[in-house]
Design brief:
The protein has about 290 residues and is mainly alpha-helical. The protein is built from 15 helices and no strands. It binds iron/sulfur cluster (SF4) (4 copies).
Length: about 290
């Protein structure tokens, strides 16, 4: 599992402007046995030429990792750390990718303005993702792929299908393996979540509280979750936020007759494709 303290030290180094303190021990690349879990679990690994955390680890092992060889797909990374959290050998592909981007910033290959715009694009992604998923449940779904700017500004779309779901009250148990009843509402999970840009858009704590209280969240943004596990990693109470979100999704799924998971999966993939193409356009100076 990723060392959360180490990650926080890295992030504090980034914000204080010092060199990204990535060491071999941080990345543990030599422990990689090429299982490919990191790449297959990466939400923006969209096929040939796209982001490929396993390839980044291979390049590091060969001593060939640099910005040119890594390619521009490192800028598609959402910093969700799912690759690192799921690696069976505690390799940390995310830290390699983050340090490369930091190097590019330090060397002036990416301007401060472009850097800020990339952060803004990530925030827009959260808004577009939740609104698209709300529309996935309606016939208007296709509208969104042509109108990124508009949907990035919209508040979260209500989803009549989701809101009409009446979930049966759940049993509340202190011994539940997801530990939701142990939550202290400290908000560390929210701080660690890559999608929690504003709590109004997406907040793991909101879903955890809904689950603990036996309520239905009634928000399509539930389906935005990347299942990265960073919320669970950050929780001092061992609340398994990502499993809570998964359990809520499974509850909602049982209320739909259509092949719901397929539609959600396809929609999410299309949003990530548009996001990656906008990042590329930004780096080309055409956005
Ligand atoms: S998940 Fe870990 S061991 Fe598997 S390919 Fe990725 S870095 Fe290597
Ligand atoms: S941090 Fe997330 S988006 Fe970035 S490479 Fe890892 S899994 Fe992919
Ligand atoms: S980090 Fe854990 S204890 Fe804190 S709010 Fe989140 S679930 Fe609750
Ligand atoms: S809720 Fe948890 S699993 Fe889902 S995106 Fe946020 S940190 Fe990742």
């Amino acid at each position: 599992m990723i060392n959360v303290k180490g990650v926080m030290e890295q992030e504090s180094a980034i914000s204080s402007g010092t060199r990204f303190p990535m060491t071999d021990e941080d990345a543990r690349s030599t422990c990689c046995y090429s299982c490919g879990i990191c790449t297959s679990s990466c939400p923006v690994a969209l096929g040939p030429g796209g982001l490929d955390p396993r390839r980044i680890v291979h390049l590091a092992n060969l001593g060939n990792l640099d910005l040119d060889r890594a390619g521009r797909s490192i800028w598609h990374c959402l910093d969700c750390r799912r690759c690192s959290n799921l690696c069976p050998n505690s390799v940390n592909p995310w830290s390699l990718i983050a340090s490369l981007r930091w190097e590019a910033r330090q060397e002036g290959r990416v301007s401060g303005e472009t850097w800020d715009r990339l952060q803004q694009l990530k925030q827009e992604l959260v808004a577009v993702l939740s609104n698209t998923l709300a529309l996935t449940l309606s016939p208007r779904c296709d509208e969104i792929f042509q109108e990124w700017d508009r949907w990035a500004r919209e508040p979260e779309m209500p989803s009549s299908s989701v809101n009409s779901i009446k979930v049966q009250p759940r049993k509340r148990s202190l011994s539940h393996p997801m530990n939701q009843a142990l939550c202290l509402t400290c908000r560390e999970c929210s701080s660690a979540c890559p999608l929690c840009v504003t709590t109004a858009r997406f907040d793991p704590l909101y879903f955890i509280r809904c689950y603990a209280l036996g309520l239905s969240p009634g928000r399509a943004s539930l389906w935005s979750c990347l299942q990265c596990g960073s919320c669970s990693q950050a929780c001092s109470q061992s609340v398994q936020g990502h499993l809570v979100v998964k359990a809520l999704q499974e509850e909602q799924e049982t209320y739909f007759r259509i092949p719901f998971q397929d539609r959600i999966h396809t929609t999410r993939e299309r949003v990530f494709q548009v996001y990656a193409s906008r990042v590329d356009a930004l780096l080309d100076g055409t956005l």
